[in-house]
Amino acid sequence: MELLDTIDLMKSDDFKDRFRAEYYQLAIRTEKLDAMLDKYEAGTLPFTPNCSFELLAAQHALMQAYLNILKERAAVEKIEL
């Protein structure tokens, strides 16, 4: 799934669809940041970041925590992801 695939869910009147869009978007971004961190650590990024690995890793950790909260909320709200 790509970010573009979540547009219809974001525009839905159903809060469960909008919730799914939020979850999927965060999951996609978290996965991409994880891949970037792997390349950063390996020295294979095609560019030089302005911020430190540690700052990006902290961002990734918070994104992962948020993703876990959304998973828990989905279970409570009975929203299939």
Explained architecture:
The two termini are 13 Å apart. The chain is elongated, with a radius of gyration of 15 Å. The chain has one domain. The model has no long low-confidence stretch (mean pLDDT 97). The protein is built from three helices and no strands. The protein has helices at 7-11, 15-42, 53-77. With 81 residues, it is mainly alpha-helical. α2 runs antiparallel to α3.
Write a concise synopsis of the structure shown.
The chain is mainly α. The protein has helices at 7-11, 15-42, 53-77.
Unreliable residue stretches: none
> What is the share of helical residues?
over 70%
Number of helices: 3
Number of strands: 0
Mean pLDDT: 97
Distance between the termini: 13 Å
Radius of gyration: 15 Å
Strand content: under 5%
Tally of discrete structural domains: 1
Order of helices and strands: HHH
Globally, the shape reads: elongated
Sheet of most strands: none
Helix/sheet category: mainly alpha
Strand and helix map with partners:
Blueprint (H helix, E strand, L loop, with lengths): L6 H5 L3 H28 L10 H25 L4
Keywords:
72% helix, 3 helices, mainly alpha, 0% strand, 81 residues
